[in-house]
Amino acid sequence: QVQVVESGGGLVQAGGSLRLSCLISGRTSGLYAMAWFRQAPGKERELVATINTSGRTTYTLDSVKGRFTISRDNARSTVFLQMNSLKPEDTAVYYCNRDPTYGSMPWGRGTQVTVSS
């Protein structure tokens, strides 16, 4: 069973930066195209960015383009989300999972990102 564990969230002022990490563990004999999602209070979960197995970004949400960058280190089974110029509207719980084009894996607990104005 593949598992994901997200980390790196926290409280930051508007304009600040955070780097989220997603460790993929368990049965990882194959690489997966991965994604970051987020869910703000009272809103549906939305797709933020996706990355293929080779490390190419394949999708970025319009509202985070130019500010967020997804990347991966396959040797460490880790996917990252670098978030710069954070805004209060980026406040959410952030989750990683498979690129939804290819299916899903069990959801982790996510990591809380709170941006103060």
Can you offer a commentary on this structure?
This protein has 117 residues and is mostly beta strands. It is built from no helices and ten strands. The chain has strands at residues 3-7, 10-13, 18-25, 34-39, 46-51, 57-60, 68-73, 78-83, 92-98, 111-116. A six-stranded mixed beta sheet has the order 2-10-9-4-5-6, with no helix packed on it. The model has no long low-confidence stretch (mean pLDDT 95).
Brief overview, please?
The chain is mainly beta. The protein has strands at residues 3-7, 10-13, 18-25, 34-39, 46-51, 57-60, 68-73, 78-83, 92-98, 111-116. A six-stranded mixed beta sheet has the order 2-10-9-4-5-6, with no helix packed on it. A four-stranded antiparallel beta sheet has the order 1-3-8-7, with no helix packed on it.
Shape: globular
Write the element-wise H/E pattern from the N-terminal end onward: EEEEEEEEEE
Q: Determine the number of helices (DSSP H or I, runs of at least 4 residues).
A: 0
Oligomer: single chain
Major sheet details: 6 strands, mixed
Rg, nearest Å: 13 Å
How much of the residues is beta strand, in percent?
A: over 45%
Q: What structural class results from the helix and strand content?
A: mainly beta
N- to C-terminal distance: 40 Å
The low-confidence runs, each spanning 5 or more residues with pLDDT under 50, are none
- Work out the helicity level: under 10%
> Main sheet: which strands, in order across?
2-10-9-4-5-6
Mean pLDDT: 95
Would you count the extended β strands for me? 10
